Task: structure prediction
Amino acid sequence: MMFSAMRHSLSAITAVTLLAFAAATLAAESDKSPRLSTPLAPTVNSAPITYLPPLKVDAPKAELGKRIFFDPRLSGEGRRACVDCHRPEQGYSLASDISPGSVAGGGFRNIPSLINTAHKRHWGMDGRHESLTAMIEEMFTSAYTMGMDPLLMSERMNQDPDYPRLFSEAGFANTDAANAYAAVEDYLKMLTSKNAPVDTGMLSEAARRGKTLFEGKAGCIRCHHGAMLSDGDFHALGVAENPRIMDQAANRQALMAHAAALGRSADPDTPQDLGRYWISGAPEDMGAFATPSLRELSKTGPYMHNGAFDTLAEVVEFYYFGGGNRGNRDPLLRPLDLDLQEINDLIAFLDALTGRDLSSGRYVWDAGYPAEYPTLRYWDHRAVSKPQP
Result:
């Protein structure tokens, strides 16, 4: 079931089948069964669920940012665009357990959705960035993502006859990389959830019952509340490591390189992603990751920081048993006292958190790019085979 090829939310009927097996297992193996209990009741700090307000967007900057986001020439290899890992039809995420990485090596974490990312208060699953601009810059320049040199990025944009005009129309003095990052940020502000059933009130009866469970008996709202359905905090859930990190040298190397870049280290023999701990150094942050927004869930699987679960039913099953078995697990995690109908209703509510499709021409660049010249390989103004001194 885990890390399988299926990359979408199960239907309610299939979810019942899966959780029925889990319930039968609990009943048949009482010596292995968790002690079912209801999680702690929601607190006054659990903000009510509400819609996300639209963000102020500079239209010319956003249009420029859209062009940059879809331009494969603006990566070091000249063939990879932001959209290759953040696909509109997949909720601006990628239907893969972990990032495919780049020519430098593999990835080691799941690719998050960019819908609503401009509403966050910190970025990266470990919260290593306090601004969206900083996160955008890392994605362009890191060897393990797009591997783009900022000077070369500017030269390639100058090589395109349309970019200087678009930068000028957007109010930028030049086509340098910093202005490109700012333009992409304005584009991402456009990607805000719209007209999800939870926002319009057009919930099915099952979803309404699921919302009541979410906010009460199931206790989900303790960590998933407010407009983003996230507390913006970090929690250790005890999720098992993705075996690809151990089995694939490229993925293992990427994890170790990430730790080293943060001034930490990872054991090459038993690599573990320690998440927030690598940022804070606090023991209580060992294996903790940012609480994700639950919006657009039905489009953005697999789930968890390392893509451990392919479907929402698997995620609910994980919480049904009280989370993972690894150390430092958050004390808020407890087995759920839910019957099959309640589980079904909860999944119906989670499906109701997905809004209107954002893959129309307003959000997607489909006009193409000039193709009458070779892409510069280096930033010395000449497409030569090697850098000049």
